[in-house]
Amino acid sequence: MQVSTLSQSVNATEAALAEIEFEIVSLSREAVQLSIEKAAQSKILEQIILTTYMVGSQSVIELLLNQEELSKTARIFQYHKLFTRAQLDSIASFQKTFDEIQAVNQKLESNAADLENQQLTLSSSLQTLNDSKIKREIALAQLRANIASYSSQLNQLEIDQRQLQALTEQIN
């Protein structure tokens, strides 16, 4: 009964190991994809920072104080507003990707730890199962030896019985 339970436990552990290994592979692929996205977003952020630096040479206050070209100033402010919004969206997207990478890495670490624990449990279960098998084989060998011994004794008793019957028949 215990061997059957251990065998089922080993099978369940092996199935769990396979599932965890599949999830680790899936998460690794996701981490690679997110790293690619992060690299692309980093390049975009670099370009945004460079553009901001280059555009920033003309002060916003300077434009406000220059009342000569109000429509041009309004247009520049609108472009600046749109550009700033795009920058913020890019930064938010980059942060989201970075957070996703961290979450995937944490999940990978957790799954790796689970996998290691499952493997230790499996190893322990297999060792217990092997120990049980060895004990059963030893008990079986002892039973076979006892059966052979009892068989030999039974044969000897049958021979003795026949001799006693022969003697009793001679005496009678």
Describe this structure in words.
- The chain has 172 residues and is mainly α.
- The protein has a single domain (2-141), classed as Helix Hairpins, CATH 1.10.287.
- Helix content is 94%, strand content 0%.
- It is built from 3 helices and no strands.
- It has helices at residues 2-55, 60-65, 70-171.
- Helix 1 packs antiparallel against helix 3 (70-171).
- The chain is rod-shaped.
- The two termini are 58 Å apart.
Summarize the structure.
By secondary structure, the protein is mostly helical. It has a single domain (2-141), classed as Helix Hairpins. The protein is 94% helix and 0% strand.
Q: What's the CATH C level?
A: Mainly Alpha
CATH architecture: Orthogonal Bundle
User: Could you say how many structural domains there are in total?
Assistant: 1
Order of helices and strands: HHH
Mean pLDDT: 82
Structural class: mainly alpha
Highlighted features:
single chain; 172 residues; mainly alpha; Helix Hairpins; 3 helices; rod-shaped
Describe how the helices and strands are arranged.
Blueprint: H1 2-55, H2 60-65, H3 70-171
Helix pairs in contact: 1-3
